Amino acid sequence: MLDRRTFLRTAAGVSSAGLSFAARRRQNFVLIYADDLGYGDLGCYGHPTIRTPNLDRMAAEGAKFTQWYSASPVCTPSRAALLTGRYPVRSGLTRVLFPQSTGGLPAGETTLAEVLKGAGYQTAAIGKWHLGHLPQYLPTRHGFDSYYGIPYSNDMHPYEGPGSPGNAKHPPLPLMRDESVIETEPDQAMLTPRYTEEAVRKIRAFRGRPFFLYYAHTFPHVPLYASPRFRGTSPRGVYGDVVEEIDWSVGEVLKALAETGQEKNTLVIFTSDNGPWLARRVHAGSAGLLREGKMTTWEGGVRVPFIARQPGVVAPRRTSAQAGSMLDLLPTFAAMAGAAPPRAALDGEDLTRELRAEAPLRERTLFYWNAEELCAVRQGPWKLHRVSNTAEWKSGTSKHDPPLLFHLEHDPSEKYDVAAENPELARHLLELMAAHEAKIERGEPQR
Ligand code: MG
C-alpha cells in the first residue's frame, strides 16, 4: 500500500493520453498578492469604511484565516519565501532589492511555478515581481511562461507621488512584458485595470489545461493611484479608492473563472506580502488591532489577511484561527496538484486538510526573521521576542527589554509582557530559536 505522498508522486509521473494525473484532475491555482495591505484593511477583517464586497463574498463562500503570516515584514524576502516555501535567509534574499541592485532569486531555488510546471501546468505572473529585474532573475527564468508587470516597487522612480517622495537616483519605472521593457513611467492610475484585463485574458486562454496564475498587485504600496472610475469614491480617501479597486479586480477574476466553467476546480487565494507602511501616515493602511506594521516583527508587520475559496473543496463560511504561513503554500499546492515537491529543505507544511476543515487546530511553530536576524518565535499561542528592529528598542527608549513574552490569543495587540511570570517557557522558546538557527546553518528543513 502506497502512502498518499508516494501515491501522488507516482500518479503525477504516470501519463495517460499525454495528460498527467494532475492535468486530468485540472486543479488550478490563482494567487492574488496585495502589497503592503494591512490586517485591518478589508471589510471582512473589520475596516469601518473601506468597502470590499467581492473579498467579503469570497470569504463568505470560502475560509478566512485570522492568524496567517508572511515570512518577512518587507517585499522582496516575503516574495522569496512565498515562491520557494523557504525562509528567505535560505535563498539569501533577506533585504529589499532596488533598481540599482544586481542580485535576485538564485537559479538554484525551485519556485512554486517550477513545481507546478513540472506537473504539466501553464503558468503566468502578473504585476510586481521584486525578485530581481535583471534578465536572469525575471519570472520567465523561474518557471513562469509569461510575465506582465513592474519588476519592483512603484515608488522606485524619480518622481513624487501621493504618499511617496520619489528618488532622483532611480531610473524611470519600467513596465515589462516577458523580458522586454514595453513602456517607461506607465500611468500608474491605469495599472490595476491593465493587470486585471491581462488576468482575465489569461484565465480565458488557460481553459482546458491546468494553470497557475500569480497575480501580485502593485498597490496599495505608495504612491497611491486609482483609475478615474474609483478615484475620489471611497469614504476612506485615496487609500480606500485603491483597495476598493483591488476588490473590484478580485471580482473580475472570480467572474472570469465562473464564465469559463473553472470555478469549482480553481483554488483562489487572496493575501498580502506584509503589513502597512505606517511611516506613510494617512497613505498607509491599518493593521487593525495588531501592533506596529511593515519592517517590524510585531504582529502588524507580518500577520496579514488570508482568504481561500474553492467551492466544494474549501469549507465555506468559516473563520479559521489555524496559524498558517506563506511557507505552506508551496507544499499545499504541490499536494493538491499531485506534483513532486522540490528536494530543497522546506519550512512549510501541507495545509490541505485545514482548507477542507478536516483537521482540528494544530499547534504551529513559526519564526519571525527580519533581514538576517531571527527576532521572534511563535509556538501555539505564545510569542517570544528575542530582539526587535523597532525604533524604541534601537534607540534604547523602550520601557521593557527583551526577551518579551506575549500570549497572542489573549493579547493579540502584544501589550502585556508576561516573560517575568513564565521564565521556563521563555527559556524553552529561546532554545527553539537557537535550534532553528542551527537547522538553517546546516541546511536542514524546519518541518
Ligand atoms: Mg510590501
Rg over CA atoms = 21 Å
Shape assignment = globular
CATH T-level topology of the largest domain: Alkaline Phosphatase, subunit A
Stretches where pLDDT is under 50 for at least 5 consecutive residues are 1-24
Structural class: alpha/beta
What keywords describe this structure?
447 residues; alpha/beta; Alkaline Phosphatase, subunit A; Arylsulfatase, C-terminal domain; ten-stranded mixed sheet; four-stranded antiparallel sheet; 13 helices; 18 strands; binds magnesium ion
Produce a short descriptive summary.
This protein is of the alpha/beta class and about 450 residues long.
What does this structure look like?
This protein folds into two domains: 4-356, Alkaline Phosphatase, subunit A, CATH 3.40.720; 365-442, Arylsulfatase, C-terminal domain. The protein has 447 residues and is of the alpha/beta class. Strands 9-8-7-6-10-3-11-12-4-13 form a ten-stranded mixed β-sheet. A four-stranded antiparallel β-sheet has the order 15-16-17-18, covered by helices on one side. The chain has a two-stranded antiparallel sheet with strand order 1-2. The chain is globular, with a radius of gyration of 21 Å. It contains 13 helices and 18 strands. Helix 7 (191-206) runs parallel beside helix 8. Helix content is 28%, strand content 17%. It starts with a helix and ends in a 5-residue tail after the last helix. It binds magnesium ion. Magnesium ion is lined by residues 35-36, 75, 221, 273-274. The site of magnesium ion (MG) has 6 residues, from loops.
